Amino acid sequence: MSASMGSTNHQSQRNQLLKLARVIDDHPDWWRFPEQEPIQGFLGTDPIFIVGDQPSMSNWGALHRCRRTFYGTLKALGLANAHLTDLYKKRGEPSELKNGLPRDFHDHLDFFRREIDILKPTRIVALGRLADRLLRQHAADLEPAMRPPIWHFSYVVRTDRGSEYQRHMRNTIWGN
């Protein structure tokens, strides 16, 4: 594939993601991973998906310790253009999906599958155990691209494992 064809495909993917981002942004209780240079967040177009279960209710501003930890690790590993997303886009209490799935969960799963169709990921990495369980239960067909879950950034911050996070994430995603 020529460089210009790759660039055209990348732009097409980004445009399709921008359309999905507008759908998310039009729902006041939905959320997506934001851009913060160099991290592209939801608009990342690399074929590596990092998938959370559900966004929390907390303010996740640029200076939030969890965001700094997660985004800093992605930057250090050269994963600034990884696609960051959640299976369920509505904000909720931590681990809310452990207590049962909301009625509209499968609508959100269909939305997630549109992201899959656009980017055709080669690696899907769950952000924590709950996201891993939900992926394996509700998207088992994606198994060939799935890797073991990475530690959730809130766990890393809560347990002060920031110094191990980069190695853990690199080993999980790349297998080395």
CATH architecture descriptor name: 3-Layer(aba) Sandwich
> What is the CATH C level class, in words?
Alpha Beta
How many domain units? 1
Q: Tell me, what's the shape?
A: globular
Strand order of the largest sheet: 2-1-3-4
Number of strands: 4
Average predicted confidence as pLDDT? 93
- Classification by helices and strands: alpha/beta
Provide the gyration radius in Å: 15 Å
Structure description:
The protein is of the alpha/beta class. It has a single domain, classed as Uracil-DNA Glycosylase, subunit E. 45% of the residues lie in helices and 11% in strands. The chain has six helices and four strands. It has a four-stranded parallel beta sheet with strand order 2-1-3-4. Strand 1 (48-52), helix 2 and strand 2 (83-86) form a beta-alpha-beta unit. The longest helix is centred in the N-terminal third of the chain and has 23 residues, at 3-25. 28% of the residues are buried. The model has no long low-confidence stretch (mean pLDDT 93).
Question: How would you concisely characterize the structure shown here?
Answer:
With 176 residues, the chain is α/β, with parallel strands linked by helices. The protein has one domain (3-174): Uracil-DNA Glycosylase, subunit E. It is built from six helices and four strands.
